Amino acid sequence: MVVKVTLKDGSIREYQKGTTLARVAADISGRLGREALAASLDGRLVDLATPLERDAGVVFYTFDDEEGRQVFRHSTSHVLAQAVQRLFPGTRLAIGPAIADGFYYDFDSPVRFTPEMLEKIQAEMESIVEEDLSFERLDMSRQEALEFFRRAGEDYKVELINDLPENAAISCYRQGEFTDLCAGPHVPSTGRLKSLKLTGLAGAYWRGSEKNKMLQRIYGTSFPRKSMLDDYLFRIEEAKKRDHRRLGTELDLFSIQEEGPGFPFFHPKGMVLRNELERFWREVHRKRGYQEVRTPIILNRSLWERSGHWDHYRENMYFTRIDDSDYAVKPMNCPGSILIYKSRLHSYRDLPVRLAELGLVHRHELSGVLHGLMRVRCFTQDDAHIFMLPDQVKDEITGVIDLVDYFYSVFGFKYRVELSTKPEKAMGTEEIWELATGALEDALKSKETDYKVNEGDGAFYGPKIDFHLEDCLGRTWQCGTIQLDFLMPEKFDLSYIGEDGQKHRPVMIHRVVFGSMERFIGILTEHFGGAFPVWLAPVQVRVLPITDRQLDYGREVTARLEREEIRAELDDRNEKINYKIREAQGLKIPYMLVVGNREAENGTVAVRHRSAGDLGPAGLEEFVSRIREEIRTRSV
RNA sequence: GCCGCCGCAGCUCAAUGGCAGAGCAGCCGCCUUGUAAGCGGGAGGUCCGGGUUCGACUCCCGGCGGCGGCUCCA
Predict the structure, then answer these.
(1) Is A54 exposed, middle or buried (0-12, 13-18, 19+ CB in 10 A)?
(2) What is the pLDDT of residues A432-482, one digit of tens each?
(3) Quick check: A363 CB within 7 A of strand B?
(4) Torsion angle of alpha carbons A82, A86, A92, A97, nearest 10°?
(5) Which of A152, A215, A312, A508 has its CA 20 to 30 A from that of A229?
(6) Which bases on strand B have an atom closer than 7 Å to a protein beta carbon?
């Protein structure tokens, strides 16, 4: 009997029923036969060993496809588990999925793994690849599977099986002596997993809950070719050079010292950057109808009890006493802003009221999570609280979405959007949460934004839209967020006078765009690898005299630039020009002006750009107007 | 907070129980220099507290801090 196979280009081929997908791939082309890792059969991801039973649409996946890479890495994680059980019998298996650039497997083992053992495990994995064991799918009944893993002492697998839905198909995969519970699919055999490397060792809680036992997680990655692995490792090394912690030191932007873990120090150059960002921020916010405020860092306990922070946020707060009463250091700016709103009566005509605050907050974060400027214990949020009429909610939310998009586009950032819903520790009723979450969702839909839902990740007083940016290693950090809040207005008995002359309850939005100045500067630093756009560069121009005979002219040039409010430095050291250029390049200063006799005589400068290189001579005034334009337009 | 690793000069790294070293940066001097490292000289250090030892950077215990994860969040 013949079955028809429809390929992704729309072409149709005919095969005998029972022909495996591997044969089909090889029939299409020799190359596809060698490179195909898995396939989808009418949209279902399957092994290449799967036989054709009926007419179907088939797509083959190779390492070039996300699906192919996932299958490849997941298969490698099985090899890891096999190697570990060969070397360390008695080790129980938890889970071992593929992740962005590789895979991991979690183990519960009587032995404590060390980096040296990792090398042995990797060697064992390589020999399993050498053995070229085929991955064999075993469909099992729930009963069979439970018995099998119970006998093997694999308690975690038993727990996983028990938690599978009633009607779930249960399958295992076997390669050689090793069998693991797995939905699949897998590559045909271990021999395909040519080039692999174990990259890390870490603790991880079973099922991601700190209440559970901590397991040992081994991270790794794999590729079909050694050269691809080498490229990957090289890229990682290059990315590390953009790490904001490293650049922060090299470029003298900031430091974090033992005396204040998680409390960053901003150095003069870092402050220039920060002030430029704030200047830009104020300019835009003024235009968008925000009014700037500033509220105190330390406020009385009663305020925090009223806001709900005392009950819901206490473990993240710092406390102090003043004249025998309790005070807290603010972890958020909202209660302060609310007090300003409450300090006078508001008419419906005044709304929305948008109070913006570059507010310094302190939060006690667990020591293990601190990370350069990305995760700190004190930071300045570019906060704002919008008090509005219920029917202004949608416009205000979309307005903030537009604002965030505008800011990020200025820096050339790509971002991801997530919608975070009601957490376990939340105030307020289910209905209010549904209302607020629905409003955020509506706004996202009306903007046709792609977003992912993050269940249970909202703030304790409301759901939020989060904007995530990537660091140099592809880790993402929440920066902007928009939170819709019906609860604080209630708690603080906020009101406005409506058309009817009666008091009504306003709705509130909490929002940040940069997120925190600290985190944003971290992201910015990694994004540009320290080579900030001219408008942000702490030093925009360095003047480099060839010899000290041109020092006077160099001073003149520097002074001229400074009169134009261009941040310029003179390198007046008695050094060779190559040396001065090398250093300025290392500091990623956008423009270097080389001045020697020729320039001094003609009133010109020899312009060098940090990435374009030598741009030749230019009149000083010409250079001034060019760079001023570049700064004015904030070009990146 | 939890798991693993790590902590030596401003930075990057040597020194496995026996006098603590190198490169770069900084300082001094020489060189007067044309688009990514000129030459020479001096100065500078073992995270903190205990313990073992004739002797500890090194081994042990505790603390503090960092890195990578987990959990948690801007």
Answers:
(1) exposed
(2) 888 889 999 999 999 888 999 988 888 888 899 999 998 888 888 999 999
(3) yes
(4) -20
(5) A215
(6) 1-5, 11, 30-38, 64-74
Encode A58-75 in three state secondary structure.
EEEECCCCHHHHHHHHHH
- The CA radius of gyration of chain A, in Å to the nearest whole number, is 30
A381 touches strand B (CB under 7 A): yes
CATH code for residues A2-62: 3.10.20.30
Cα angle A348-A353-A357, degrees, rounded to a multiple of 5: 165
Please provide residue A267's backbone torsions phi and psi, each rounded to the nearest 5 degrees: -85, 170
Interface confidence, given as ipTM, is 0.93
The CATH architecture assigned to A541-632 reads 3-Layer(aba) Sandwich (3.40)
Class of domain A67-240 as given by CATH: alpha beta
Burial code (b: 16+ CB inside 10 Å, e: under 16) for A316-337 equals bbeeeeeeeeebbbbbbbbbbb
What are the domain boundaries of chain A?
2-62, 67-240, 265-295+332-527, 541-632
Q: How far is the CA of A576 from the C1' of B39 (A)?
A: 12
φ and ψ of A354, to 5 deg: -115, 105
What is the CB-side half-sphere exposure of residue A1 using CA atoms within 13 A?
7
Subset of residues 405-424 in chain A with CB less than 7 angstroms from any atom in strand B: 423
- Pairing, β A38-41 against β A568-570: unpaired
Domains A2-62 and A265-295+332-527 share a fold: no
**Locus of tokens 């993050």:** A454
Q: Per-residue pLDDT tens for A282-337? A: 999 999 999 999 999 999 999 999 999 999 999 999 999 999 999 999 999 999 99
Can you tell me the distance from the alpha carbon of A402 to that of A388, in angstroms, rounded to the nearest whole number? 18
**Residue A362 a catalytic site member:** no
Strand B-contacting residues in A 251-290, CB cut-off 7 angstroms:
256, 258, 261-262
Annotation: CATH topology of A265-295+332-527: BirA Bifunctional Protein; domain 2 (3.30.930)
C-alpha of A550 from chain center: 48
Strand partners, A568: A541
